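Retry 2 of 3 after timeout on previous attempt. Resubmitting structure tokens to design endpoint.
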């Protein structure tokens, strides 16, 4: 019986599924089974999968049930001591499985291991590193405030942790992964692998078009989570909502920032500030506000600089290249902050 079960839901992903499977099959850790749930694909996803030959690979086809249900179907098929999920358009660094297995084996009380995320453009050519997070142990209060896991392709769970909290909520059309991690965090310690190992593909058009859906289900998940949270954590709810609205604002400002999206982004950012004014002390929020101001009020040259520099997607940020250390990343961030301050001092705005 394999030590690890890798579950990959697949729905109409013929353009990306081959690279995703290649990323999994080239892991340095090899004691795993690869369970693909074909979730009623209507393109040639299944044909692409059938072209991949590996004895660890198993394919199961169902009528379309949505992402949470596809993960649940994969869990039902899994036999490993550890279970991990991979969306069919994301990638891993080759050591992802090895280091997460090691982390859980060294921390036998932990129910979940997570790594750091690197955001990837739709073409898989440019990358932007998420802020590193070192939280571990009892992370329930911090996870209530915001989803630092970042993507559904990140975590590795003990099968016993999954058994203790149940399955994914198939009624959720968004944010179902955060809701699940919260249930795990309420019962199990987490452990972190402090390396960028998850390459999370983002489609600008897709994300920007789902703001309303994301808001609806984010608020639903937050309401449910705090209904079950202990009394001493109830004071975190406004902070949690504020983080949700600043995230929605960031999507609007970062992806396809036309006039309408900039206005929506500003409205969401205002909601965040009203809910939790202290959020203005967060560096991420300060940069978001600065970017919005430059795009909305600045000159064309300034706006162009902003688009090129803020949260820059760059091929050099690919963690598989291993040629951009954290010190250089922080230096680049400081450069952007200083340049913004120069613009303000010069009265450009």
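Retry 2 succeeded. Sequence:
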């Amino acid at each position: 019986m394999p030590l690890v079960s890798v579950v990959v839901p697949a729905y109409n992903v013929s353009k990306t599924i081959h690279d995703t499977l290649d990323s999994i099959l080239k892991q340095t850790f090899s004691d795993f089974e690869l369970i693909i749930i074909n979730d009623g694909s209507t393109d040639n996803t299944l044909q692409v999968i059938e072209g991949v030959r590996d004895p660890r690979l198993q394919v199961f086809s169902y009528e379309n049930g949505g992402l949470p249900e596809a993960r649940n179907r994969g869990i039902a098929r899994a036999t490993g001591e550890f279970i991990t999920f991979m969306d069919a358009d994301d990638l891993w660094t080759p050591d992802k499985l090895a280091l997460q297995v090691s982390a859980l084996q060294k921390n036998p009380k932990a129910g979940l291991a997570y790594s750091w995320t690197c955001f990837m453009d739709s073409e898989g050519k440019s990358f932007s590193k998420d802020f590193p997070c070192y939280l571990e142990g009892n992370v329930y209060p911090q996870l209530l405030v915001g989803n630092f896991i970042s993507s559904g392709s990140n975590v590795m769970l003990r099968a016993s942790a999954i058994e203790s909290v149940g399955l994914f909520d198939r009624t959720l059309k968004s944010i179902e992964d955060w809701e699940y991690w919260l249930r795990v965090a309420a019962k199990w310690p987490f452990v972190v692998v402090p390396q960028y190992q998850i390459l999370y593909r983002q489609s600008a058009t897709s994300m920007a078009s789902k703001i309303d859906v994301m808001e609806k289900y984010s608020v639903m998940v937050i309401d449910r989570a705090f209904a079950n949270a202990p009394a001493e954590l109830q004071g975190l709810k406004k902070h949690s909502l504020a983080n949700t609205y600043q995230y929605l604002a960031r999507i609007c400002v970062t992806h396809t920032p036309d006039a309408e999206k900039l206005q929506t982004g500003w409205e969401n950012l205002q909601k965040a500030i009203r809910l939790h004014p202290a959020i203005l002390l967060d560096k991420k929020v300060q940069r978001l506000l600065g970017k919005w101001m430059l795009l909305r009020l600045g000159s064309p040259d300034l706006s162009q600089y902003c688009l090129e520099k803020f949260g820059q997607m760059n091929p050099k940020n690919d963690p598989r290249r291993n040629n951009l250390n954290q010190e250089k990343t922080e230096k680049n961030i400081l450069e952007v902050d200083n340049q913004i301050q120069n613009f303000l001092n010069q009265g450009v705005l």
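Attempt log closed. The radius of gyration is 20 Å.
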